[in-house]
Amino acid sequence: MTMGGMVQNLTESLATMLDAPLADAVVFGFHIDGHFLLETLLVVAIAFLLLQKSYQPQKRPLTEQEVDQLCEEWVPEPLHPPITKEMEYNPPVLESAAGPRTVVNGKSVINLSSTNYLGLIGNSKIKEACNAALEKYGVGSCGPRGFYGTIDVHLDLEAKIAQFLGTPDTILYSYGLATASSAIPAFCKRGDLIIADEGVSWGIQNGLLLSRSTIKYFKHNDISSLEKRLEEVFQEDQRKRKALNRRFIVVEAIYQNSGLMAPLDEIVRLKEKYRFRIFVDESNSIGIFGKNGRGLFEHLNIPVEKIDIIIAAMGNALASVGGFCSGSSKVVDHQRLSGAGYCFSASLPPFLASASIAAVEIIQQDRERQKMLQENVAFLRRNLSEIPGLTLGSDPLSPLVYLYLAKSSGSFAGDNAILQKIVDQMLEKSVLLTLKKRSVLDKCKLPTGIRIAVSASHEKSDLLAVSLSLKEVVQSILSS
Amino acid sequence: MATVPYFVVLTTYFSYGLLFVIGHLRDFFRSLFYKDRSTAEGYAPLCRDFEDFYTRRLYHRIQDCFNRPIASAPDAWIEVIGRVSRDNNQTLYRTYQNQRCLNLSSYNYLGFAASDEYCTPRVMESLETFSPSTCSTRIDCGTTVIHQELEEMVARFVGKPAAMVYGMGFATNSTTLPALIGKGGLIISDSLNHSSIVAGARGSGAKVQVFQHNTPSHLEQVLREAIAEGQPRTRRPWKKIIVVVEGIYSMEGELCRLSEIVSVTQKYKAYIYLDEAHSIGAIGKTGRGVCEHDGVDPAKIDVMMGTFTKSFGSCGGYIAGSKELITYLKHVSPGHIYATSMSPPAVQQVISALKVILGEDGSDRGARKLAQVRENSNYFRQELRRMGCEVLGDENSPVMPFMLYNPAKIPAFSRECLKRNVAVVTVGFPATPLLLARARVCISASHTKEDLDLGLEVISEVSDMAHLKYFPQMESFSKVKSV
Hints:
The structure holds 2 protein chains of 2 kinds.
Chain A: H1 3-19, E1 26-27, E2 30-31, H2 34-51, H3 64-73, E3 101-104, E4 107-111, H4 124-137, H5 145-149, E5 150-151, H6 152-165, E6 169-173, H7 176-187, E7 193-197, H8 202-211, E8 214-218, H9 223-239, E9 247-252, H10 264-273, E10 277-281, H11 296-299, E11 309-313, E12 323-327, H12 329-338, H13 340-343, H14 350-365, H15 368-384, E13 390-392, E14 400-405, H16 412-428, E15 431-432, E16 434-435, E17 450-453, H17 460-479
Parallel strand pairs in A: 4-15, 7-8, 7-9, 9-10, 10-11
Antiparallel strand pairs in A: 1-2, 3-4, 6-12, 11-12, 13-14, 14-17, 16-17
Helix pairs in contact in A: 4-14, 6-14, 7-8, 15-17, 16-17
Chain B: H1 6-33, H2 49-59, E1 69-70, E2 77-84, E3 93-103, H3 119-130, H4 145-158, E4 162-166, H5 169-180, E5 186-190, H6 195-204, E6 207-211, H7 216-229, E7 241-246, H8 258-267, E8 271-275, H9 290-294, E9 303-307, E10 317-321, H10 323-332, H11 334-337, H12 344-358, H13 365-387, E11 399-405, H14 409-419, E12 422-423, E13 425-427, E14 437-442, H15 449-466, H16 476-482
Parallel strand pairs in B: 3-12, 5-6, 5-7, 7-8, 8-9
Antiparallel strand pairs in B: 2-3, 4-10, 9-10, 11-14, 13-14
């Protein structure tokens, strides 16, 4: 007998067995057989199970005593890690203005660390403007722009910068560092996309973080890497039809962290191809590049309308403090309500606005400073190019000149220690140099180096002296 | 905060409802007849729809009440620059016709905003020596002798072993918090803390929880729960917890209940970060802020933060704490390492103002200023209360908001006051909750009794027009005024 036959036999005999005692039972004209009985039982069982409370482990909230004990036992980490030798850094203390020559420890030194590119520190016109403003307005503005902290010089400066750059409008921030970290989150929100250079400065990194947008990085100043990233986004768009989001490319004209120059014309071409907007930080190029000193976009003959958002710090070539963001009137107006560092901070002290107005006027009138700066950069680079043990970084036109160790010790800290020795010895030889310092919060992983900020007001003889003593010092330190 | 009357709730919601309906109606017709060409094909609009709508249909209607430019120092009296619009308030143009107004809006608590006999000559001297900027960060060549002097002085003033200064108050918070705490840490923040604290907390990567505004009992509850539960998902204990509070809440005028909060944080081993942006210089017998006012030993406060923009009439901010904390922050804080150092003349202004406050200028001007701001504030607050206005905030606080509620009262109050030559700040949504639009008065030591009486008279008159006297007027008000 087959297996199937056996099973059939078994069920049949089971059915007869069940049916037998009730064979004749009819209730309300309904014939009750074993089948019905079984089904009823099943329904009852299911109903019983359904009506049962599902199993839940009993929740017992912590008692007050238990919470007390947990609080008692909790040991927080100290507010800050233990202080190491490396943290105890004492920067040089200046006894005079940070001009091309300054006084440290009562000694006159050649200063190559101030980003006073156009030599406007100590300029008498700027000082005059400041004095007049101090007398009229006092020092602080005692309020944010919204609440009677808008002084006429702020409006004048905004108009001046807009006119200088050729943009429709400009908005001022009271601090350079807060400019990018307010302007980026004003436009980019969760769900938006930003493609940024991996070498951007901390202010921009902070802005990217605060925006909560999706961030993709491309290799430092590498146009093909940028194109690859853009292509990836394009491919993904083809696969998934998503709602249009805001997209930005974020770059610096001259990178604070490397002195390299962004190929802005190429980037603009790509951003148009892939329909991105572009955000450019011109902090180290404004007043320095272009026929009229407007910045890198002018130098590369890019119409200013093609740059959606320009920001710059005024603490470099303009020899003031603060920052601004320039662009279409929509870009600017929107920030007046959503730029956190604009709405919720006291406005720029009026005398610093006056200083910036004077500085822009000088840049517009006096083209010589720009030429002098370029000459000085070229002169210094020529003299620094043949120091054994050091390699020259940065773009040939950049006023920020980086010198790297030709043979890295392998770590940032190790390199820093060697370079710090060089810097210290240079100070003994009356030259003030600085190292690139990096906060542990900074995600930029570019190598460390000596950072030289060239100024139009540096004397050639001083620059020559610097390169000669640097050669000596480097030789003595690297050979030991 | 007092409970909002039902009638006011109803009318306020109705006003906003009406504004939204009309706005959308206008947008509908706009979409029929006007094609927006500002956004190019293939790009997402630059601003979010709601933000755009809010700006066009609500903010633009009353934008003349904000960002009013002035052409003078933000002293007791200011020159407000006239503005006109030829396109229904879309754009405003300066008219160059100035209007001399009583200033009840600047944070000029001690009256150091205008040029000062002691401070200004010294500031100009430092300008001559150091120029307006160092064009450098503090660690490169942006530290001058006066930066050092100021740091020592601030530490001495607030009663901490060490201090460091930043060039901007906002950046002080937004760059210090990320240096102190990160992933695995917890920031417990007062629900009404300033935007800079929010930015710092968000930038730090730590988890953020809020406790009910100025309520130590709720803080305790939040702390207990947080410690008992540990980090979300991983359940590991928190690395550390920082409680962030402000000395004076600038939109509420309230003083921090510091001593109670400190006893809670000490009990639960949380660190406390105190932002004295508005309170330093303005509160306490010798101007040393809420610690002095509340009798809390500064040693109990782990991180003391404050700004120089308000009482000292300058710009920038400071962090004060233990020597080790400051050494660590100087090594890590991006505001110290990457930002242009504080402008030397601004540094000198703070040094000079501090010397006046401490009486080191050889006069009692500082003490008189401190007494004056307290006296002025209490007088003004008391009179506003008597008038029947719903005034927020505590005794001794120079910041006193009072409620407007209905959105239409924001421009009404602001414009009518300006017509009568009084400059007052009005604030509405989104800076405050939808229902709680308010006006705010900031009192200065440089206000004379006549100034204050004039201000009160105008506010009373306008409040009558706008029905702002939510409480019955006390009979004594008119009497006191006539005395």
